Predict the structure.
Amino acid sequence: MKEEGGLKGSSQFSRRGFLKIFSVSLASISGLLLGIPALDAIISPALKSRLTSFSKAGKIGNIPEGSPVRLTVASSAKDAYLNDTEMHNVWAIKKSNSDIEVFSPICPHLGCSYNWDPQKSQFECPCHGSVFAENGKVISGPAPRSLDTLPTKIEGDELYVEWEKFQLGINKKVKI
Ligand code: FES
């Protein structure tokens, strides 16, 4: 009888002990799970916007060689819990299958969209008249610097471009 009582006591103890450990573990796991969104919100959106990545811009074989063409690339930014994806038309100039330069479509003067004039073989900005050569250099107008190039990489037959933005109206290319 004594032994039985002892066993019963020990079994109650271990059951209680188990329940205690179980509830503490459950509370810890819940705390961790609840903490993840809080941590997520603490990380600055500015830091996250720097975590952008390359997006597919097109098959190299489909990009004509010689003169600038428009390609579409995506950029994604995460602000708190919202994922935001935007599409951008960039200008690409393919000199060869391994040499493709991509320009941001934003005029470095004050941010208008510029166009390629195939007759004059130059980029022209309609806002204040800046003119750029095919290699992006300023020919005339108020633009303080060349067109901004974007990072590119080639994997297989695919061109990838990373969307970036730069400060406007200054003579240096400074990433925002
Ligand atoms: S914004 Fe392009 S010339 Fe001013």
